[in-house]
Amino acid sequence: MPDKPGRNAIEVANVSKIFGSGEGQVAALDTVSVSIRENEFFTLLGPSGCGKTTLLRLIAGFDFPTHGEILLYGQDIAPLPPFKRPVNTVFQSYALFPHMTVADNIGFGLEMLGKPKAEIKARVAEMLKLVKMEALAGRRTSQISGGQQQRVALARALAPQPKVLLLDEPLSALDFKLRKDMQIELKRLQHETGITFIFVTHDQEEALTMSDRIAVMSAGKILQVGSPWDIYDKPAERFVADFIGETNFLTAAISGIGNGKARATLKSGSTIEATVAEGFQPKDNATVVVRPEHAKLTKDKGELSGTVDNIVYFGTDTHIHLRLDSGEAFTVRQQNTRSAGCGFERGDKVGIVIGNDAAQVLRD
Amino acid sequence: MAKNFSIKHQPGFTAVAATCFVVLYLPIIVLVLYAFNAANSTSEWGGLSLKWFRSAWQNTEVIDATLRSFQIGAIAAILASIFATMAALATTRTAPYRGLTFQYAAINQPLMVPEIVTGVALLIFFSRIKIFTGYSGLGYLIAAHTAFCIPFAYLPIRARLENMDLTLERAAADLYATPWKTFRRITLPLLWPGILAGLMLAFVISLDDVVITEFVKSGGQDTLPTYMLGQIRRGITPEINAISTAFLLLSVAIVTLFFFISRKRD
Predict the structure, then answer these.
(1) CATH classification of B60-263, choosing from 1.10.287.4070, 3.90.1150.10, 1.10.630.10, 1.10.3720.10?
(2) For chain A, percent helix, then strand, then coil, each to nearest 5?
(3) In this complex, is the C-beta atom of A99 within 8 Å of any C-beta atom belonging to chain B?
(4) pTM score, two decimals?
(5) Does the domain formed by A246-362 have CATH 3.40.1190.10?
(6) Does domain A8-233 have CATH number 3.40.50.300?
């Protein structure tokens, strides 16, 4: 998806969050800066403990940054308590109020804002319709299923028309099928309401399929911000390439850098052309990555050669694990056809063809 | 093959349990039975009668003491529950801090200090206040009862708070509820069964107290238990049995209610 320029809804500027003090102090966030645009579906992606939830909590106001500013449409909201921020959250555990009905839950935010009764009623009805829960408006939240609770939590957070909606791994408690449905549902809701969504997840597939842009985080830092396509096909560093999808890492000698390209001489002796991430000046030796689906196997000679180690069938495709002659591991993903097998067997000596534009030089 | 091994079945358990139950309940059964005794003594059986219940009901001293017990119990239980709720909120809604264990101990002090010590201490303390202020009303008894009822009210309230999901309060704050609104609309309604349980427990404990009341009360301030104690010194009639039986019934009723309230909505 192409980047669409727009106003910034949220600007996080040099934000640090340090827990504890003295010897035991830990920086959950380390001078993080990121801008999130209006009407964007923005995802914070990273393994647990990377600081993504901490950043979300700082935007929501459940915690305050140790340093830095958080701007909401230009206004610094970092020192405000949560009830003074026009930002709402969908919690991982949903946190629906158990002593209230579905409708009362959805109307709670508007009620706290002091809206007139008639307006609340109309808005709650509208929200119930939006999440297709009209029939269950009078139920207690303990009397509805997990998927329905999820919808109520969404409706409750959307009802006060927040400037930004924060979603803290909201789909993690749902089973696979429901999760897939809710992913589509969330995209639809974001589209229909036009509200900026900030979505936290550790699931890279979820991030790739749903987001306009993704920020990949690790150890309290943002490593790369970009569209799903950028993140997957042009990872800026090793961690990003490794965390998002599967990939092959090769060591290579680099020469002839220029115009965003370089020549990489692999251990096998063959030289391939590789792209270089923007603003990165590789040294003589660097890591080159090739996605498994961008390499092809051949019975003839290729840029690399190796032996088939293992063949794993996945339904849509087959993963062929290889041991290169240089000793490195390499995986090739091959689309399946209905009539024939993958054409290779364990122990086969094969060549690997790496096409133009398949390889990239990475920052370690 | 023998029966499956079970730690629950060991020789002698049944006999010990049976003995305990007999010692615990037989005297109460006898007491209740003799409340319906027509004779004038508790040592002989003179046939069934309700006359001692009638006699107790017409005894103004009994009615007087009962009403006083209720009055003290109700006020003390309400005050104790309010203080206990505040204490429970303060000790569960924060990160652990230095002195928290000490605070638990301080709140639960009445459970650990012998009642007789508290009684003597209060007697001396209140007598000084009496001299300075000249006040000699029920306030002293209410204050004393409130103090020793707090830990009993505190326990169920704290248990309820500890089981409550903190995210709910966070969600309310996220939805524009000020801290006071969050307390009124979220915390308090969810805490209510715990507070009610604490209230009733405190009431029963207050109703039952003898030792501290005996030390603190002024002349003419008998509660039902201290009145009964006084009567027994002068010789027992089945009227005491009748009063005890009515008292027992009331306690059982309150404790049963307490049980159902604390189970509800869990």
Answers:
(1) 1.10.3720.10
(2) 25, 35, 35
(3) yes
(4) 0.80
(5) no
(6) yes
Answer whether A112 sits within 8 Å of B189, measured CB to CB.
no
Burial class of residue B221, CB neighbours in 10 A (0-12, 13-18, 19+): middle
A185 min Cα distance to partner chain B (Å):
22
User: How far A236 CA lies from chain B's nearest CA (Å)?
Assistant: 36
State which residue of chain B sits closest to A92, comparing Cα positions. B167
Q: Is A21 on the interface with B (CB under 8 A)?
A: no
Parts of chain A belonging to CATH 3.40.50.300: 8-233
Instruction: Determine contact: B181 vs chain A, CB below 8 A.
Output: yes
C-alpha distance from residue B19 to each of B10, B16, B35 (Å): 16, 5, 25
What are the domain boundaries of chain B? 60-263
A83 touches chain B (CB under 8 A): yes
Span B39-95, pLDDT tens digits: 887 777 888 888 888 888 888 888 999 999 999 999 999 999 999 999 999 888 777
ipTM of the complex: 0.81
B174 in contact with A, Cβ within 8 Å: yes
Are the beta carbons of A89 and B174 separated by less than 8 Å? yes
Mutate to test the interface with A, among B174, B183, B264 (most CBs of A within 10 A): B174
